[in-house]
Amino acid sequence: MTASRPKALQTFCLLLPLLVWMVDRSLCYKPVIVVHGLFDSSANFKNLLQYINESHPGTNVTVLDLFDNKESLQPLWKQVQGFKEAIYPIMQNAGRDGVHLLCYSQGGLICRGLLQTMPDHNVDTFISLSSPQMGQYGDTDYLRYLFPTYVKSNLYRLCYTQMGQTFSICNFWNDPHHHGIYVNVSDFLAPLNSERPEPNATDWKKNFLRLRKMVLIGGPDDGVITPWESSHFGFYDENETVLEMKYQMVYQDDTFGLRSMDYRGAITVYGVPGVVHTMWHSNQTVFKNCIEKWLT
Q1: In a domain, 199, yes or no
Q2: Is the terminal CB of the chain with fewer CB neighbours within 10 Å at N or C?
Q3: Active-site residue among 222, 230, 231, 281?
Q4: What is the CATH number of the domain that holds 146?
Q5: 36 belongs to the catalytic site
Q6: What's the domain of life for this entry?
Q7: Looking at residue 28, what is its pLDDT?
Q8: Which of 56, 232, 277, 281 does the annotation list as catalytic?
């Protein structure tokens, strides 16, 4: 019997990796938190949930059911606070392993608000899916529905008022022909970018840089995010010529940590043609090529 023990131990050691894999493959997958966009709800993300469950079985995925549909027009700082209260317990349960944030459209700005204002967040990877990170300036069906008497060139007259800033879309309306007014009036995007003196800027930058990775996804056929390069932190100059991320003041001055993240190789950018705005979270090719590998 004594001689058989080493052989049994050897067999056990050989089988142990297989046993661990069989017990719980999900141990290697971090929780995923999904934040929806304007006029969306958790019901819009059934395909995305299916893709994640098929590729990473057992992953804890939470699609937050807050500020749905018309409620998504609430001011963005109010939404940031609401989502923060819902997300914080998930982060705490994840502990040192951390979580991933997958945030679509307007939700990408809400997630930036979370990342910059939470000193103890444990977000590993932030996936910004067709989100107007540098703002919005363009006529879209959404705008015509919300403000039928206003078009691109005139919307600043409403958005850059105290009343206008009570609408989420006005919180990131960035008119390049009225930049000075935007900087002074914007309640959300301008302070988030530290485009004007912000007392919390140093802390917000430190919080943002807790991220390990940021993935930026967008494309030229989006049809809603205008310019579409805003999803990559590009934006118009005063002549409506798009300047890419590295030529933006927020990058060059590293106002909230964008350049620092880029310098450490922590930003990945995907430009995907042929995808309209409402299909980013339902397109399996986008998931396979741009999202799946980051959810480990």
Answers
A1: yes
A2: N
A3: 222
A4: 3.40.50.1820
A5: no
A6: Eukaryota
A7: 78
A8: 277
